[in-house]
Design brief:
Strand content of chain B: 25-35%
Helix content of chain A: over 70%
Radius of gyration of chain B: 20 Å
Number of strands of chain B: 12
Distance between the termini of chain B: 43 Å
CATH topology of chain B: Rossmann fold
Oligomer: heterodimer
CATH class of chain B: Alpha Beta
Number of domains of chain B: 1
Mean pLDDT of chain B: 91
Largest sheet of chain B: 6 strands, mixed
Shape of chain A: globular
Mean pLDDT of chain A: 83
Low-confidence stretches of chain A: 6-23
Low-confidence stretches of chain B: none
Distance between the termini of chain A: 29 Å
Order of helices and strands of chain B: EEEHEEHEHHHEHEHEEHHEE
CATH superfamily of chain B: P-loop containing nucleotide triphosphate hydrolases
CATH topology of chain A: ABC transporter involved in vitamin B12 uptake, BtuC
Structural class of chain A: mainly alpha
């Protein structure tokens, strides 16, 4: 090979390298990122309103506005206030919470396919709900809230403890293994209950599919403080998560209290994903997909990832929920199914990308 | 001997199995100290423990006379930096972002990014020759550049003590020398105390002022390379027969292993 050729090859390689590094970020400067975040906020607010306006009961933006400014007791106004409003706000809050908890899980496990589910959150909540229905004959969605929150927390704490056994403390591999085992165990017990008791199956089937429909505003206000605490702590953790993503040894060497930060992050996952499953049942894929989309847009700095993923999570869930009303109208698709339909191609894409990289 | 890092009756273990047993060691200040020993002798474990990455089973590590386990970890990070063995940066992290993390020990809720932080980062990039590459993602750099970027991060930490666990592993000869020259300069010009684990005995002899040879959970010899490295030490530490001669360039001990290989008889010596 002549020197000239060699130079060309190395220039080409350099070019590829540059592209590879930069293709990771859509928005590069501080200014672009700030503007982007505001745009996301505007889109989120727009979708919150759109979610109130659009659906089976035909309304218009004007009627929707009147329902809140000049309430007249009509059927439309009632639906807008007591059904659409809670549904819209719940979708926004849950989407944001699931997305943040997904970011936290992926950083904790250093596994790009991690989601709150790895912590056994949904499996724990599902089992708790099924037990409460079968044994204690709990009936309402309201009753499910605290039961599932408790179930999610117990499962996650269990996974954390099992994953922390041994000398190294909580490692990504042990956490992933412990989580998978606990999730499978809980799901199979849940399946067992459902096979034995058909009435339970009927009652919880809709809950198990995950939905933001038919929840009251009270449910949200009851859980919102937990979600809010989770949001704030996650934002405060952001710069420390940057350190954590460089590996435990490096982070410890820089003076980060690694064990404490991991425990705090894990507690946030319980608050956020546990709170989300308590309100809406298991809604999948937001926790996996959103962190990846976010990183593609703004890179790997958690100080941006956390707020951006919160916005995008809310946006995706609201959009999925609005779509869910139109796919098989007048019936509705559970939003958990919608997010799965949107999320699965992404999931495969990420898995393939990771596989090719190795 | 002036020393600011000491171990007292330090015992390290993995489970029941002790790696280092009741070790009393003093690291000379302002010098380059290199830990040598065979694979699995505990030299990396000892370094990690000195850097508080690994809790001792018993005994303690003293930094300027104080037990390191009792000091706030951020305070320790302002005095001592550690570069672990083959660290991995998240994909897409730029050199600049990596080096900036070195200032973490100086930040708090009240004290955010300052002029001094900026200067230390610039100085670290300059010392490692990475100014031109500062916006490149670390994972697109060559092995030697990548290692320099990590060293730049520890330099930005602006510490008196610099600990490195096999900083030349996976590097070719050119880059090994490049990294060790950089560390040598840091010691010479800025008087930083450097403690590292190296596999290459000859390079250890060339760059270290002080060598600590580990064997059977203990220190089997320590001192200047030229006073302690000889046939019997190498035999004892590495279970390897060798000749020790003098490096024709540097005058430091040069170890030539026995074993098999092609013999070419020289016609005239």
């Amino acid at each position: 090979m002549s020197d000239n050729n060699r130079l060309l090859v190395s220039a080409h390689k350099l070019d590829q390298d540059m592209v590879r590094g930069n293709a990771f970020m859509l928005l590069k400067t501080q200014f672009q990122k700030t503007v982007g975040l505001y745009l996301c906020l505007v889109l989120l607010l727009f979708l919150i309103c759109a979610s109130i306006v659009y659906g089976y009961t035909d309304t218009s933006w004007k009627v929707a506005l009147e329902a809140f400014t000049d309430f007249n007791g009509s059927k439309e106004h009632l639906i807008l206030q007591s059904v659409r409003l809670p549904r819209s706000l719940i979708a926004a809050c849950i989407g944001a919470s699931l997305a943040i908890s997904g970011v936290l899980m992926q950083t904790l496990t250093k596994n790009p396919l991690a989601s709150p589910e790895i912590f056994g959150i949904n499996a724990g909540a599902g089992l708790a709900v099924v037990i409460s229905v079968t044994i204690f004959s709990a009936g309402s969605t309201q009753a499910y809230t605290w039961v599932s929150f408790l179930g999610a927390a117990i499962a996650a704490i269990g996974v954390y403890i099992v994953g922390s056994f041994g000398r190294e403390g909580l490692t990504p591999l042990k956490l992933t293994l412990a989580g998978s085992v606990v999730a499978v165990l809980f799901s199979s017990i849940t399946q067992g209950f459902l096979v034995i008791s058909e009435t339970t199956l009927d009652q919880v089937l809709f809950w198990l599919a995950g939905s933001v429909q038919g929840r009251k505003l009270d449910t949200l206000t009851a859980v919102l403080p937990y979600l809010a605490v989770g949001w704030v702590i996650s934002l405060l953790l952001a710069s420390k998560l940057n350190l954590l993503s460089m590996g435990d040894d490096v982070a410890k060497g820089l003076g980060l209290k690694v064990g404490f930060i991991k425990l705090t992050a894990a507690s946030c996952v319980i608050l956020l994903a546990g709170g989300a499953v308590a309100i809406a049942g298991p809604v999948g894929f937001i926790g996996i997909v959103i962190p990846h989309i976010t990183r593609a847009i703004i890179g790997i700095d958690h100080r941006w990832i956390i707020p951006y993923s919160a916005m995008l999570g809310g946006i995706l869930l609201l959009a999925a929920d609005i779509l869910a009303r139109y796919v098989i109208m007048p019936q509705e698709v559970p939003v958990g199914v919608m997010t799965a339909i949107i999320g699965t191609p992404f999931f495969i894409h990420i898995a393939r990308k990771g596989f090719n990289a190795n | 001997m002036d020393s600011a890092i000491k171990t007292e009756a330090l015992t390290l273990s993995y489970g029941e199995h002790n790696i280092i047993d009741e070790l009393d060691l003093a690291i000379p200040k302002g010098e380059i100290t290199v830990f040598i020993g065979s694979n699995g002798c505990g030299k990396s474990t000892l370094l990690r423990s000195i850097a508080r990455l690994l809790k001792p089973k018993s005994g303690s590590v003293l930094l300027n006379g104080e037990a390191i386990a009792k000091l706030p970890t951020k305070e320790v990070a302002r005095k001592m930096s550690i570069l672990p063995q083959s660290p991995a940066a998240p994909e897409g992290l730029t050199v600049m972002q990596l080096v900036k993390q070195g200032r973490y020990p100086y930040q708090s809720w009240l004290k955010q990014w300052s002029e001094e932080d900026e200067q230390k980062v610039e100085a670290a990039l300059a010392a490692t020759g990475l100014v031109e590459l500062k916006d490149r993602p670390v994972d697109t750099l060559s092995g030697g550049q990548r290692q320099r970027a990590w060293i730049a991060m520890t330099l930005a930490q602006d510490t008196e003590f610099l600990l490195l666990d096999e900083p030349t592993t996976y590097l070719d000869m050119t880059h090994q020398i490049e990294i060790l020259d950089l560390l040598f300069d840091l010691n010479e010009k800025e008087n930083r105390t450097i403690i590292m684990v190296l596999h290459d005995l000859n390079l250890a002899c060339r760059y270290a002022h002080h060598i600590v040879a580990l064997k059977n959970k203990k220190v089997c010899a320590q001192g200047k390379p030229e006073s302690i490295v000889n046939r019997s030490l190498v035999k004892e530490v590495f279970q390897m027969a060798c000749e020790v001669t003098v490096d024709p360039l540097f005058g430091t001990p040069l170890c030539i292993p026995h074993g098999k290989g092609r013999y070419i008889v020289k016609e005239s010596l």
